[in-house]
Design brief:
By secondary structure, this protein is α/β, with parallel strands linked by helices. The chain contains 11 helices and 20 strands. The strands form 4 sheets. It has a 9-stranded mixed beta sheet. The protein has a 6-stranded mixed beta sheet with strand order 9-2-1-13-20-19.
């Protein structure tokens, strides 16, 4: 395909989503000119706070197809770069104290569809020979599908750090870790040239007349940029960009936090998959702390029932020493800010929550290492927690946003899909399900509202 010398596209947002959109516009469509605009340096805001995980586990076939496509593209990057993106395939281990898991199995069937019977493997007492533990990080030789472990000796031997009350482990095999920063830098490196430019500044206004005029406030003054089409990839500020064109997007933001610290006590095995405690819990406070928290109206909630989905994983590869903990329990919508509203109490909260699954973490109660890193980012989501990719409602304006908690894993497929929408090219069968048109599909929306949102 020859370069399109007539079209100039401006992408607002230089996180992993904006960068991937620019990359696939250039790679798949040989676009003549793309301008990437952001107030900050590339990959320095929300994308810098990524959990850097990927999975194809979703309770709907469209999301499974979408994330499988993204993982295919991530594997392409791993191959062509000598695995510069540090891709591994240890999977997601979903742990529960339940033995009756029909609802979870149904979610797997909902997502995998006709392939479920082939891809789901059960390992109960006396039926464990087919299970392949994730002893090595290699993504090319790792199995796909799902292993459901309910054989207690197998669980104990495979996941020795887990509390002994765990009765079920659902091991999602096409999942693991990647380096979001390296992925973004690899894409940016491929975009160098006369057909790509990066502009550092804040978009203050957008007007439409024979294309789009963007007013951009930069350090050296105000710039005016003319573009034929625009892509809103502004992450937690996507709603602000849309409002400049009189569009209200059905999205909101919640702030979620994580911690990372050097595990010098070796509480978490280096070969542990990304582990999620599915069960709700009460945080493990001492009786004295519990009484004190209950007496304070601002902190009493910390003694109430807490949701599940707390997660833990080794960080830095097999030879690293760090561990990451996260717990997306915040459901309060808020306007996004550039300064992260970190809660000083979160590190101890997430540590005590994570210790329920990995009790060796109790050694850090009240004594987390000084070099502990406490960080957080905005989860931008629709009510159903699916991304918005496609036309934004004004001719020539497109969006690639609302990638709540799955921006890194969905970046490649999302960028590829957004580029196809912009260029009017052939799109995959699932494309309409990720556009605003899905709200006209009553059957799909009913299914999504009744399904698990997958917020991790």
């Amino acid at each position: 395909m020859p370069p399109n010398t007539e079209m100039h596209i401006a992408i607002i947002g230089a996180g992993i989503i904006g960068i991937s959109t620019a990359y696939y516009l250039a790679k798949n469509h040989n676009l003549s000119k793309v301008t990437l605009i952001d107030r900050e340096q590339p990959m320095s805001f929300t994308s810098a706070q990524s959990g850097e995980n990927y999975r194809n586990w979703w309770p709907h076939p469209s999301m499974v197809a979408f994330t499988n496509r993204s993982i295919d593209l991530l594997e392409d990057f791993a191959r062509e770069s000598g695995n510069r993106i540090n891709m591994n395939r240890r999977g997601y281990a979903l742990a529960s104290r339940r033995t009756e898991i029909n609802d979870l199995v149904q979610q797997l069937h909902d997502g995998l569809g006709d392939t479920a019977d082939r891809l789901i493997r059960y390992h109960s007492s006396g039926d464990t020979d087919r299970y392949q533990p994730s002893l090595a990080p290699d993504w090319e030789t790792a199995p796909i599908g799902v292993d459901i472990l309910q054989d207690q000796p197998l669980i104990r031997s495979t996941f020795p750090s887990y509390e002994r009350d765990i009765q079920t482990v659902i091991h999602i095999r096409r999942g693991g870790d990647i380096s979001s920063q390296q992925l973004g830098m690899h894409m940016l490196g491929a975009l160098k040239g006369d057909r790509f430019e990066r502009l550092t500044g804040s978009v203050e206004s957008i007007t439409q007349a024979d294309g789009f005029t963007l007013e951009i406030a930069a350090v050296d003054g105000t710039h005016t940029l003319q573009a034929d089409k625009i892509v809103n990839a502004a992450g937690p500020f996507a709603d602000r960009i849309a409002k400049m064109l009189g569009i209200e997007l059905p999205i909101c933001n919640t702030f979620q936090q994580k911690i990372a610290f050097e595990d010098h006590k070796k509480a978490v095995p280096r070969e542990l998959p990304f582990s999620i405690d599915l069960d709700g819990q009460k945080i493990d406070w001492s009786e004295e702390d519990r009484e004190m928290l209950q007496a304070d109206p601002d902190f009493k909630w910390l003694t109430d029932d807490m949701p599940g989905a707390i997660h833990c994983r080794p960080d830095g590869g097999d030879h690293g020493t760090w561990v990451k903990l996260g717990w997306a329990y915040n459901e309060t919508a808020a306007e996004a800010t550039w300064e992260p509203p970190l809660d000083d109490n979160f590190p101890e909260i997430v540590l005590r929550g994570a210790a329920r699954l990995n009790p060796a973490l109790k050694a850090y109660y009240g004594r987390l290492p000084r070099n502990m890193h406490h960080y957080g980012g905005w989860y931008t989501m629709t009510e159903e927690n699916w991304p918005l990719i496609g036309p934004m409602g004004v001719e020539g304006a497109f969006m690639n946003c609302a990638h709540s908690g799955f921006g890194t894993m969905a970046a490649c497929a999302g960028g590829e899909l957004a580029a196809a929408w912009v260029m009017g090219a052939k799109r995959p069968a699932y494309s309409d399900d990720f556009s605003l048109d899905r709200h006209n599909n009553a059957k799909l929306m009913k299914t999504l509202h009744e399904s698990a949102k997958g917020v991790l």
